[in-house]
Specification:
Structural class: alpha+beta
Strand content: 15-25%
Order of helices and strands: HEEEEEEEEEEHHEEHHEEEHHHHHEHH
Number of domains: 1
Largest sheet: 8 strands, antiparallel
Shape: globular
Helix content: 10-25%
């Protein structure tokens, strides 16, 4: 067993009940306002012990580090030129860490971007004329002379409140406070084949000195292949899949090809020594990412020459995007409150409690699949406990203020990529011996974790824990299992199906990933 701390099987099952409120896709275009500003749309947040180079027992390699990845600007078409997908210099991108359970950030990593127009020109007759593309020829090096647009960023560490705390600049291990970002994968003629682009991107993995941390960290910001496996079209078309398919394990790849595998996303990735993130003897940290814009925006109807010359922004920062646990704003929060959630902070999450204790999605899923699937043990205190506090013996801090965020127990050893169970704790319940992989969702989240399938297992009631049910792990055939209350199990499931068989017919484990930092795969090229 890999976990280095005690836990109860019933607590593990309770942990998975949180998924009954989150069953669809990562957060892509999930709130009305965010659709108007895609550069600050956060789509996925990952938080996990680094598994690069670790031994089977979870030791060695980069095992003493924690990786944090915040994805922004989702659903990028690789061919989307000529300006491609630079991040917004008028935005503030942040990753927050709560390391004492009080629902407030204790450490914030702030990213600010600068997109410099190099104004490459060509002699045309007797005149020097600016080119219309962001590259003037092949690109291979950091700050390549052929780049017409150079993207850089700064990294600031804030301790305490993100706006009033102590802010200090992070620096490169070799000196300087400006970090280069690779240009997006325009195509193979500009940047070479996948191996060449990977080598180019790796030159933008920077060793960084973080104020207050004795061990250097690593940072990378750049385009990656979308790492989430889902069929957005069928999912949002009232779950356009038969119940008989999604309860049959042999049909795990029965859906159409992963609809977003050909898309790219922009990742903000940090790898930090775990001692730099924890506080005292508490090993559990909570994390989430946000993006903010200035409250005021002035548009110049007659822009001057230059890059980003149309807009002037000012005023206080206004948060417009927030993501911790996957899928929350997309399929838990009601449409009327989606923008409110995007602007909120964990300490104020009591206002959204009804969406957790009385979730609408289980009933909606049952309606569209024409089956009675929703557990009736309302209010869902089991769901609220796990979702808002962490799971006792797994990833719950010693003291905690209920709030939504992704929680990771940094004392849990990492599992090498090849040995990871895509269902993490759920998969471990099916394995022999049990307990082979407790290092994944909902104890943090790794790229390989199939959060949709984990959610679906709970959606059909197999992991509902209430009223002293004997079958708390949902391992037996349902319905009709003695000891499972009618409130906690589904009333209508195909005969012979078990809760642990449920899936979305898209295999997260089939997505290609890297074995080391920044873990998400080389992006798709705009042209072969």
């Amino acid at each position: 067993m890999r976990n280095s701390f005690p836990f109860r099987a019933s607590a593990v099952a309770a942990a998975l009940a949180l998924a009954s409120g989150i069953v669809s896709a990562a957060s892509h275009r999930e709130a009305p306002f965010i659709t108007t500003v895609p550069k600050v749309d956060s789509s996925d947040f990952y938080l996990f012990r680094s598994y690069e180079g670790v031994a089977p027992d979870g030791s060695g390699g980069r095992s003493d580090f924690v990786t944090l990845i915040a994805n922004y600007l989702p659903l990028q078409d690789a061919y989307g030129g000529p300006n491609y997908f630079s991040l917004d210099p008028n935005a503030l991108y942040e990753i927050h860490i709560d390391n004492n359970g009080d629902a407030a950030e204790d450490i914030t990593f702030q990213f600010r971007f600068n997109n410099k127009l190099n104004d490459v020109a060509l002699p045309i007759g007797s005149k020097s004329v600016a080119i219309p593309l962001i590259q003037a020829g092949p690109v291979a090096n950091v700050g390549d002379a052929n780049l017409n647009l150079s993207e850089t960023y700064t990294l600031t560490v804030v301790r305490g409140d993100r706006r009033r705390g102590t802010a200090q600049q992070a620096t490169k291990a070799g000196g300087g406070a400006t970090f280069e970002k690779p240009v997006d994968y325009i195509g193979t003629k500009t940047l070479g084949n996948a191996a060449a682009y990977a080598a180019y991107a790796n030159r933008h993995v920077h060793a960084v000195n973080l104020p207050g941390c004795a061990t250097p960290a690593r940072v990378f910001v750049g385009q990656r292949q979308e790492g989430f496996a889902v069929n957005l079209g069928p999912i949002f078309d009232l779950v356009n899949a038969p119940l008989s398919t999604i309860t049959d394990p042999s049909q795990i790849n029965a859906a159409a090809a992963n609809s977003i595998q050909g898309k790219n996303v922009t990742s903000l990735a940090l790898e930090v020594h775990r001692s730099c993130l924890t506080q005292g003897s508490e090993p559990v940290i909570g994390g989430w990412t946000t993006a903010s814009l200035r409250q005021a925006r002035l548009l110049n109807p007659t822009p001057a020459a230059g890059h980003q010359a149309t807009e002037r922004a000012g005023g206080a920062w206004s948060q417009v995007s927030r993501l911790g646990q996957p899928l929350v704003n997309e399929v838990v929060i009601g449409v009327k409150d989606k923008d409110r959630f995007g602007a909120s902070r964990p300490r104020d999450d009591a206002q959204f409690l009804d969406y957790v204790t009385n979730p609408t999605l289980p009933a909606l899923l049952g309606t569209v699949l024409q089956a009675n699937l929703a557990p009736t043990n309302l209010p869902r205190t089991d769901l609220a406990t796990v979702f808002l506090t962490g799971i006792t013996g797994v990833n719950k801090p010693a003291t905690v203020t209920p709030s939504e965020m992704l929680r990771l127990n940094t004392a849990t050893p990492p599992v090498p990529f090849a040995s990871q169970n895509r269902l993490a704790i759920v998969g471990s319940l099916k394995a022999s011996p049990a307990g082979t992989d407790f290092a994944g969702f909902p104890n943090g989240r790794r790229p390989k974790d199939d959060v949709v399938d984990i959610a679906l297992v709970a959606m059909l009631g197999g992991l509902c824990v209430a009223n002293g049910d004997a079958n708390t792990l949902g391992l037996n055939t349902i319905p009709g299992v003695a000891g499972v209350s009618s409130a906690c199990r589904p009333a209508s499931v195909p005969t012979g199906a078990t809760s642990l068989d449920v899936h979305d017919a898209v295999d997260q484990a089939a997505v290609p990933f890297l074995a080391g930092f920044p873990y998400l795969n080389t992006p798709n090229p705009g042209a072969q």
